[in-house]
Write a structure and sequence with these properties.
The complex is a heterodimer of chains A (about 550) and B (about 230). With about 550 residues, chain A is of the alpha+beta class. Chain A has 19 helices and 18 strands. Classes of the chains: A alpha+beta (about 550), B alpha/beta (about 230). Bound molecules: guanosine-5'-diphosphate and magnesium ion. Chain A: Plays an important role in membrane trafficking through the secretory apparatus.
């Protein structure tokens, strides 16, 4: 078994896109200078004021022009900063930047300021890339996400085009790097109704700008997902290699044609509770049927096959893995996103390199992706370590299909895919409208269909953001809670976390606190009764 | 009633013939190369299902098959539809290595894609073993002639200078698509099929039989390495 695992690793390395010798030299080198994850910040500058950005513009501007006296006039609105730190930061700016950058910076920041002043409540739903970045609609989006390189080159923007935003991104980078120069990390900037959060993941910098009441932690988690999405397309090894050799490389060249994956991931982050809970959900299916599907998949094995994943839309049917190899929920969500976003796998069999960054950021796996039947939602993903394994994977799928189609379980599976998941009424708690239950040990969660009150996309997103608030409270970095109960005009919410599970409940606003708490036990009992249908209780390995 | 008898008999005859001397089915590896968005996937879908629908950009590579019957042989096309995006360039040689047919596709309404097709040709030529690959230059989106940026003559003259075959198609209307596949089939059979070991025979694997499967895989890797 050990020998096999080792071989797998070896061939997996040779399965990377870059030639092996080049890879090795990249790995031997230390990561590029700058902030590396895990570097201890000297001082934490976590809460800046939004006007700090505009101050910085002036600082950058005046530093460039050499009018030192002007800097201090505009540098008063720092909140958590001592005067000393201020001076230090400013000195860095003074010595480090070139004049053009400051000019460009100013222009961009002036634009940013306008965004702040002129924000409107008219939320347009247009997600077109061609959107004018100086328009009202662009400014009023609830959440912006920008990705840039450490040289300040734009890599991705959720709305508008990267070109149009290059000066804005240049300024963001200027902000990040002048704080960084003093061994500090800029984390977030807060202003009235607006929050800017930074995530530096060398060689990328990610910036989120939000008008929602999300916590910094939640926003960081989302930026992290975006980071992993990009790594998943290119590998971190390749990213580092590129920027080591050409600091101002335009990464959009390599991401061209894949932006839609990041766009879709951002939509998922707003709609899919799984990304919030760090869990995935299963297709409800009788355990006898699921076991047949799993064992058919288990039988279709191959030397370099590491994971076999069967999906029904966004729900997991089963997952079989190599012994001792685990698939992280983030990697699984990236696979969900890839399959769910691309209609191209509908034609023929797909074969694509994919990096599963939580497994290993350095190399590619190779995924065979195909639907079981032309119009079916059932999609099989076979992940191999060997890039020449296409025909082996294709055979594995064939074997699986031959086995499965002989069994009645296949019919049961197809029926289950067609049915809606389940309604909350089945639980038998009248005031209960919706819930999320995550089993911590399995990393799986279950939740009923959204009820009538939450049918629209906006209502679902609103409910999700309420759950997110509860989640933030339970997982507060310094004051975590075990229970949280909240009454609102539109609904009452209860959240509970134990060592075994996390539970989020949404009740009608008329429920009493006592009956809400009583409902927890009733719901837990129901879940226990149904668990072999709602969860995968016996995961298999090859 | 009476009439059906000889037919059944004839059918049985044919069947036993098949058993004794299987119909030649030869495997043809065909790769589609070219910029993203020129219509490679749309052409591949026309080849394999004679359908047209818009899908999202290809991720990595897609594999489809289609069988073409010639008078003296049956060809099983194994079509590799590549993504054409820059991030996949380092894996693309995997697909054109050992290909019997390469279609260099460009979009007649985008001159830049015509230039890219020539870059792909250079790439191919690096690996080229004379007589082992039939190369076609394909100007797609012929239905958009009013937006044409690459004149027909320019495609033709590039093809004749480089010794390539040339055609303009429309995956949308289906025009010239079947003609393309038919002439590819004839050419590849003429040029490569006749050579010793030029095309390998395809063996169907009707049931799960591991021994049989292994030999199939041997063929697969042999085909991939190329003649
Ligand atoms: N008008 C027209 N559009 C086409 C044709 N072939 C493909 N398209 C469209 O061009 C776009 C890209 O096609 P696709 O097959 O995905 O290109 P690929 O990236 O080369 O695989 C899609 O929107 C297709 O609908 C064609 O012959 N005529
Ligand atoms: Mg394509």
């Amino acid at each position: 078994m050990e020998g096999e695992a080792q071989k797998a690793t070896a061939s997996w390395e040779s399965g990377t896109l870059a030639p092996v010798d080049r890879l090795r030299s990249v790995r031997a080198d230390s990561p590029i200078p700058g902030l590396v994850e895990g570097t201890e910040p000297g001082r934490s500058l976590s809460h800046y004021q939004w006007d700090y950005i505009t101050d910085c513009a002036l600082i950058l501007k005046t530093a460039g022009a050499g009018q030192k006296s002007a800097m201090f006039i505009h540098a008063h609105s720092f909140e958590d900063l001592t005067a000393e730190a201020e001076e230090e930061a400013l000195r860095t700016v003074d010595s480090g930047r070139s004049e053009e950058q400051h000019e460009e910076g100013l222009k961009a920041l002036v634009a940013e300021q306008n965004i702040d002043e002129q924000h409107s409540n008219d939320l347009s739903d247009s997600r077109t890339k061609e959107e004018d970045v100086s328009s009202e609609a662009w400014r009023s989006h609830k959440k912006h996400v920008f990705v840039l390189s450490e040289a300040g080159k734009p890599i991705y923007t959720r709305y508008g085009t990267e070109e149009a935003l290059s000066s804005t991104m240049g300024v963001m980078m200027a902000l990040v790097s002048f704080v960084e120069a003093e061994k500090n990390i800029i984390r977030s900037i807060h202003a009235d109704g607006c929050k800017v959060v930074f995530l530096t993941k060398s060689p990328l910098v990610l910036v989120g700008v939000s008008r929602t009441c999300q916590s910094d932690k939640e926003m960081l988690r989302e930026l992290q997902y975006i980071y992993y999405q990009i790594v998943s397309l290119l590998t971190l090894t390749q990213l580092n290699h590129i920027f080591q050799h050409k600091q101002n490389y335009d990464l959009r060249r390599l991401l061209a044609g894949s932006e839609y994956l990041t766009d879709n991931l951002l939509i998922r982050l707003e709609r899919d509770p799984g990304l919030l809970l760090s869990a995935v959900t299963c297709l409800p299916l009788a355990s006898s049927s699921r076991d047949v599907v799993s064992s058919s998949l288990q039988a279709a094995k191959s030397k370099n096959l590491v994971f076999s994943i069967l999906l029904a839309g966004d729900r997991l049917v089963t997952l079989v893995r190599k012994k001792d190899q685990f698939l992280h929920h983030i990697d699984l969500h990236l696979v969900f996103n890839l399959v769910g976003s691309s209609s191209s796998f509908r034609e023929g069999e797909g074969w694509t390199p994919i990096c599963l960054p939580k497994f290993n950021t350095a190399g590619f796996f190779h995924a065979h992706i195909s639907y079981l039947e032309p119009a079916s939602q059932l999609c099989l993903i076979l992940v191999s370590t060997d890039r020449e394994d296409f025909f082996n994977m294709s055979d594995c799928k064939q074997k699986f299909m031959e086995r499965l189609s002989k069994r009645s379980a296949y019919q049961a599976l197809k029926e289950a895919v067609k049915c809606p998941s389940y309604s909350v009424a089945q639980v038998g708690i009248p005031e209960l409208r919706h819930f999320l239950y995550k089993s911590k040990s399995s990393g799986l969660y279950t939740s009923p269909e959204f009820p009538m009150v939450y049918q629209s996309d906006e209502e679902q997103e609103r409910l999700l953001s309420l759950y997110q608030e509860l989640h933030s409270c339970l997982h507060h970095p310094t004051r975590p809670l075990r229970y949280y109960y909240r009454c609102r005009e539109t609904e009452n919410l209860l959240a509970q976390v134990t060592s075994g599970f996390e539970l989020y409940l949404c009740f009608s606003p008329l429920v009493t606190k006592a009956s809400a708490f009583a409902a927890v036990n009733k719901l837990l009992k129901w879940i226990r009764k149904e668990e072999d249908r709602l969860f995968i209780l016996s995961p298999l390995t090859y | 009633m009476g009439e059906s008898l000889p037919r059944v008999h004839g059918g049985a005859q044919q069947h036993s013939d098949t058993l004794r001397r299987p119909v030649h089915t030869l495997r043809v590896k065909m790769v589609l190369l070219g910029s993203s968005g020129v219509g490679k996937s749309s052409l591949a879908l026309r080849f394999s299902k004679d359908e047209f629908r818009s899908t999202s950009p290809t991720v990595g590579c897609a594999y489809l098959t289609q069988v073409v019957h010639l008078s003296n042989a049956t060809l099983r096309f194994e079509i590799w539809d590549t993504a054409g995006q820059e991030k996949y360039h380092s894996v693309t040689p995997l697909y054109y290595r050992g290909a019997h047919v390469a279609l260099l596709v460009y979009d007649i309404t985008q001159r830049e894609t015509f230039v890219r097709a020539q870059v792909w040709l250079k790439e191919l030529e690096k690996q080229y073993i004379p007589g082992s690959t039939v190369i076609w230059l394909v100007g797609n989106k012929g239905d958009l002639a009013h937006d044409r940026q690459v004149p027909l003559e320019e495609g033709e003259s590039l093809a004749s200078n480089k010794g390539l075959y040339f055609i303009e198609t429309s995956a949308l209307s289906g025009e010239q698509v079947n003609e393309l596949l038919q002439s590819v089939a004839h050419r590849v059979f003429e040029c490569i099929g006749a050579q010793q070991g030029g095309l390998t025979e395809w063996q169907e694997t009707p049931t799960v039989d591991l021994r049989h499967k292994d030999s199939f895989n041997l063929f697969a890797s042999c085909c991939k390495v190329g003649p």
